[in-house]
Design a protein that fits this description.
Length: 125
C-alpha cells in the first residue's frame, strides 16, 4: 500500500521525532523505499524533525539531523505539530523542492531533445 502512495507522490516529508533516536534511525529505511519505488535519486524530500517543543526529552541533536540532511541533499526543518511551529513552512518548502526538481528535469529534457535534433539535422546519410 505504501508503495502505491510513493509511486503517485511528487514530494515527500520524511518525519522523525526529535525525542526518539530510533525514529531517526528508521527514516533511512523509509527514504530507501521512496528511492527504490521512484527509481531515481532525484526525488523531492524534506527531512522533518518533529516535537521541537519537547526540548527536555530531545534525543536527536540539530547537528545529527543537519548532517543527515546534507548527506541526502535536502532541506531540514524542525517543527512542533502540537504548537504549530514551522508547519506551514514545511509545506512551503516541499513545494519549493518539487518545483525545483521539476525545473531541473525539464531543462535536462530540453537539452536531450536539442541534442537529438542537432544530431539528426547534422548527420550524413
Amino acid at each position: 500500500m505504501r508503495d502505491l502512495y510513493i509511486k503517485n507522490g511528487r514530494g515527500f516529508l520524511v518525519v522523525f521525532s526529535l525525542t526518539s533516536w530510533q525514529s531517526f534511525l528508521d527514516i533511512r529505511t523509509i527514504r530507501e523505499q521512496i528511492l527504490r519505488v521512484k527509481g531515481t535519486d532525484n526525488v523531492p524530500i524534506c527531512l522533518i524533525g518533529n516535537k521541537c517543543d519537547a526540548s527536555l526529552q530531545r534525543q536527536v541533536t540539530p547537528d545529527d539531523a543537519l548532517a543527515l540532511a546534507q548527506t541526502w541533499s535536502c532541506p531540514y526543518i524542525e517543527t512542533s505539530a502540537k504548537l504549530a511551529i514551522n508547519v506551514n513552512d514545511t509545506f512551503a518548502e516541499i513545494v519549493r523542492e518539487i518545483n525545483s526538481k521539476m525545473k531541473t528535469k525539464k531543462i535536462k529534457k530540453k537539452k536531450k531533445k536539442y541534442r537529438k535534433s542537432f544530431l539528426n539535422c547534422c548527420s550524413s546519410p
